[in-house]
């Protein structure tokens, strides 16, 4: 039987904001979530956990490491063979830091946070092309990637260095702008979304006691974006309420 559910791939969805987004989408019977995970073990545990909640939507695991080009291509082939198309893609997987020198950190973080989302869209575009719905791409970014905010001494995060993360998210913002220009004329919708400071495993500071919001709140606005509620903001740098300055 044809799968008329909205098929959404979320990368890095075995934990944190990606997992929470998967859970929220699954409260809708019209959704089929492909839970992306670079670790088979963590991905299987996450799918099992979601299935144990008896949510109305459907969920399957997709093994994808966005820092590995072959893994991205293999995942696209697997999704094509099993589902024949994709309706939405959330480039959520990211790292905040890496080991080594500044040069090594920048390269590693760039590979995951910039080259990964770029190559993932490239690999899955032929499957999004086959969607009978409006294809949507959400690139999960951060206000930390705003060049305007970085230069503003009144910004709350002015003293936060995190250069490799900031540089990668600024570059992801341009990746997203390029994708909006490339795919917009086909009727696809492309967005950047920043969840805001949220409880997750991103770094040791992402804890409620440091003021981070609940993971459900960080992920929540993406459900509306994926449901088309913010289509008029195609190409934008979205946050829960409005948009960031670039
Ligand atoms: N939390 C915040 O305050 C905040 C604020 C602004 C933006 N964001 C953005 O929100 C998104 C989700 O982050 P999070 O806060 O939920 O962090 P998280 O809890 O660390 O989740 C990140 C996810 O990405 C996965 N991942 C990392 N590298 C990967 C790779 N090479 N291939 C595939 N998956 C990979 C991780 O898998 P493993 O479990 O295997 O490590 C994990 O599932 C990120 O894009 C982040 O930059 C977060």
Automatic annotation (TrEMBL):
<dbReference type="InterPro" id="IPR036291">
    <property type="entry name" value="NAD(P)-bd_dom_sf"/>
</dbReference>
<comment type="similarity">
    <text>Belongs to the short-chain dehydrogenases/reductases (SDR) family.</text>
</comment>
<dbReference type="InterPro" id="IPR051468">
    <property type="entry name" value="Fungal_SecMetab_SDRs"/>
</dbReference>
<protein>
    <recommendedName>
        <fullName>Short-chain dehydrogenase</fullName>
    </recommendedName>
</protein>
<dbReference type="Pfam" id="PF00106">
    <property type="entry name" value="adh_short"/>
</dbReference>
<dbReference type="InterPro" id="IPR002347">
    <property type="entry name" value="SDR_fam"/>
</dbReference>
């Amino acid at each position: 039987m044809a799968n008329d559910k909205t098929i959404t791939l979320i990368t890095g969805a075995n934990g944190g904001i990606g997992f929470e987004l998967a859970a929220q989408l699954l409260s809708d019977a019209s959704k089929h979530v492909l839970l992306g995970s670079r670790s088979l073990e963590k991905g299987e545990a996450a799918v099992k956990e979601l299935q144990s909640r008896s949510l109305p939507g459907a969920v399957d695991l997709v093994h994808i490491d966005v820092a590995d080009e072959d893994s991205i291509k293999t995942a696209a082939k697997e999704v094509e063979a099993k589902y024949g198309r994709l309706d939405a893609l959330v480039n959520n997987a990211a790292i905040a830091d890496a080991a080594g020198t500044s040069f090594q950190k920048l390269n590693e973080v760039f590979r995951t946070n910039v080259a990964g989302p770029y190559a993932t869209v490239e690999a899955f575009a032929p499957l999004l092309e086959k969607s009978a719905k409006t294809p949507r791409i959400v690139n999960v970014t951060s206000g930390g990637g705003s060049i305007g905010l970085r230069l503003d001494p009144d910004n709350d995060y002015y003293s936060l260095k995190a250069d490799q993360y900031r540089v990668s998210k600024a570059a992801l913002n341009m990746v997203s702008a390029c994708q909006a220009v490339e795919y917009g004329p086909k009727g696809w919708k492309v967005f950047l979304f920043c969840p805001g400071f949220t409880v997750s495993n991103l770094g040791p500071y992402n804890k409620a006691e440091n003021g981070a919001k609940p993971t459900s709140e960080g992920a929540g606005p993406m459900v509306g974006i994926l449901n088309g509620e913010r289509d008029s903001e195609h190409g934008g740098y979205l946050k829960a309420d409005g948009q960031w300055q670039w």
